[in-house]
TrEMBL record:
Belongs to the FMN-dependent alpha-hydroxy acid dehydrogenase family. InterPro entries: Aldolase_TIM, Alpha-hydoxy_acid_DH_FMN, FMN-dep_DH, FMN_HAD, FMN_hydac_DH_AS. The lineage of its organism: Bacteria, Pseudomonadati, Pseudomonadota, Alphaproteobacteria, Hyphomicrobiales. Its cofactor is FMN. The keyword Oxidoreductase applies. Its EC number is 1.1.1.27. It is an enzyme of class 1 (oxidoreductase). This is L-lactate dehydrogenase. Gene3D superfamilies: Aldolase class I (3.20.20.70). PANTHER family: 2-HYDROXYACID OXIDASE 1, S -2-HYDROXY-ACID OXIDASE-RELATED. Residues 1-379 form the FMN hydroxy acid dehydrogenase domain. Keywords: Flavoprotein, FMN, Oxidoreductase. GO terms for molecular function: L-lactate dehydrogenase (NAD+) activity.
Amino acid sequence: MSTVLEIADLKKLAQRRVPKMFFDYADSGAWTESTYRANESDFANIKLRQRVLVDMTDRSLATTMIGQNVTMPVALSPTGLAGMQHADGEILAAQAAAEFGVPFTLSTMSICSIEDVAAATKKPFWFQLYVMKDRDFVRNLIERAKVAGCSALVLTLDLQILGQRHKDLRNGLSAPPKFTPKHIWQMMTRPQWCLGMMGTQRRTFRNIDGHAKGVSDLSSLSSWTAEQFDPKLNWDDVEWIKNLWGGPLILKGILDEEDALMAAKTGADAIIVSNHGGRQLDGAPSSISMLPRIVDTVGDKVEIHLDGGIRSGQDVLKAIALGAKGTYIGRPFLYGLGAMGKTGVTKALEIIAREADITMALCGKRRITDVDSSILHKD
Ligand code: GLV
């Protein structure tokens, strides 16, 4: 493809370059994928207000998320297995984000470890925590994130058990991949990907491998999750983690007003309105449709971020207009990564920044910090 103009172009390229099981892992939601689809389609239903003859010079998308400067209010979401979209994927995405001036969030379920990413980057990144039954392991992960200089901990609240994604089960997803004829075929038809993977040692869950006791089967994400993720996680544990960590804390996975109130009471620095990209409770409402209610309920108590369904700079603007202080992209950067490695992640960020900038101008605003619900068309 000669010209990459939008995130959908990167998605098409990634599909050609990444083995099916890993491309599908990113491009999947739970069960019927209705929430995954709604995350995107509900954004499309929000209309913008066109304004004219407003001075459009000297525009800026710069703002802050949890008090940290960002060149635009878009962080990279924590995504499992990014290092299977492209060799050393988490390192490349973290470098691209740092160079662009936006936060990168490393998932607990990453391929490159906290230490791998810290060694390859100069700016602090954020670390996303899943809570395991083995609390020593959790303590250790938090300690490792501190030693690496991570500048926020993103605690995921909505994945105590794993939602069922049909594509992953049908594909027999694992990291490292199994060597069945089907999987070998999927990889052989992606020679560039294979070459990259042959050039790195990072092919398994390196935050866990060699660090966790009693992990019996690392090869299967779903069986390991079912075995190790703590289904008893509760609000007292949030307090315990907050105290252990002692730094900026972001709670991810709030989709309900009552939960938002509980989350605000913890004293966390921000909450992320999220349904885990439609990967957990299929049938839940889209993130963007819940944002206004959550802003009404706790907007004066805690900073509110949003993830789920953002595929363009217009979507970013819509989320900011509805009260989010920051947003996250998961699939858009994974598609960029799968398509072209670090260059593709930078491309995804550039596309979104350009769209956000032009949209802001055509809505009559010059600063993202001035964007509010006045840019939305109301019937
Ligand atoms: C893990 O976070 C997943 O959604 O697969």
